[in-house]
């Protein structure tokens, strides 16, 4: 999991026991290096690594990753995190564009039905995305824009322009 630079970590079990925590950023951790740390509320040691990467615009980014698996190498940790991150856009789209988080349901049956309907909606959005080359957001905006155009056209029929009296 990623760790923010302002989060506090203990550098040893003794530091943790005595409440001596420091921020992640000033540790001076070298890129590709892995360090054992302790987090408050976690009873076992974790491993912290610093990943430095270059963005498309040439700027540099730093990501601190934490894992509980002491057998993983730097490459294995970063590869797993990259795979995990690919799932994030799916979850975000499922919640935002397929209305998964706006469920007014209270029983298991209605919650299950809502979850299934949201998954079906997401699948349809993905199919449309492939066919139209539009994003989920753009696909959702198209019917709204068309509905607004139709509503304004209907209003014009009821309300003639000023100065025109029938």
Order of helices and strands: EEHEEEEHHHH
What percentage of residues falls in helices of 4 or more residues?
40-55%
Biggest sheet architecture: 4 strands, antiparallel
Principal-axis shape equals: elongated
Radius of gyration: 26 Å
β-sheet strand percentage: 15-25%
Q: For the terminal residues, how far apart are their CA atoms?
A: 68 Å
Your description of this structure?
With 166 residues, this protein is of the alpha+beta class. It has two domains: 2-85, no CATH class; 106-158. The chain contains five helices and six strands, in the order ββαββββαααα. It has a four-stranded antiparallel beta sheet, covered by helices on one side. A hairpin with a 5-residue loop joins strand 5 (46-54) and strand 6. The longest helix is centred in the last third of the chain and has 25 residues, at 108-132.
